[in-house]
């Protein structure tokens, strides 16, 4: 059981468990959902985007960078909470 997404503490073990569980979904989430998973993961682990935007021919890289950039200013703690909540939602939608 995870700490609730609105609880004061977000335990690193909960985040790590969610990161493993998202890899075990029975069906592949939509691209937009996966971009959100990626963006929240990066924001939680690294913080604000710290790399240059990929070149125009790197479509996947640009999409991932843009998704992460949208999380700019969000605390790593808030990103962890949102990530855990999103993974729980995806587990309900796609199964594990």
Task: Summarize the structure in words.
This protein has one domain: Acyl-CoA Binding Protein. It has helices at 12-21, 31-45, 59-69, 76-94. By secondary structure, the chain is mainly α. InterPro entries: Acyl-CoA-binding_protein, Acyl-CoA-binding_sf, FERM/acyl-CoA-bd_prot_sf. It holds the Pfam family ACBP. Belongs to the ACBP family.
Task: Give the topology.
Layout: H1 12-21, H2 31-45, H3 59-69, H4 76-94
Helix pairs in contact: 1-4, 2-3, 2-4
Quick tags:
96 residues; mainly alpha; Acyl-CoA Binding Protein; flat; disordered N terminus
Radius of gyration: 14 Å
| Major β-sheet profile | none
Which structural class fits the helix and strand makeup? Answer: mainly alpha
The number of distinct β-strands equals 0
Order of helices and strands: HHHH
Fraction of residues in helix: 55-70%
Supply the CATH class.
Mainly Alpha
Low-confidence stretches: 1-8
Shape call: flat
CATH architecture: Up-down Bundle
Whole-number total of structural domains: 1
Number of helices: 4
| Distance linking N and C termini | 15 Å
GO molecular function: fatty-acyl-CoA binding
Family: Belongs to the ACBP family.
Protein name: Diazepam binding inhibitor (GABA receptor modulator, acyl-CoA binding protein)
InterPro entries: Acyl-CoA-binding_protein, Acyl-CoA-binding_sf, FERM/acyl-CoA-bd_prot_sf
């Amino acid at each position: 059981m995870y700490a609730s997404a609105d609880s004061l503490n977000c335990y690193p073990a909960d985040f790590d468990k969610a990161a493993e569980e998202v890899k075990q979904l029975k069906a592949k989430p939509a691209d937009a959902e996966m971009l959100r998973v990626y963006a929240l993961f990066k924001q939680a682990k690294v913080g604000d985007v710290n790399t240059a935007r990929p070149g125009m021919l790197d479509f996947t890289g640009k999409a991932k960078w843009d998704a992460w950039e949208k999380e700019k200013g969000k605390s790593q703690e808030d990103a962890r909470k949102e990530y855990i909540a999103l993974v729980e939602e995806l587990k309900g939608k796609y199964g594990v």
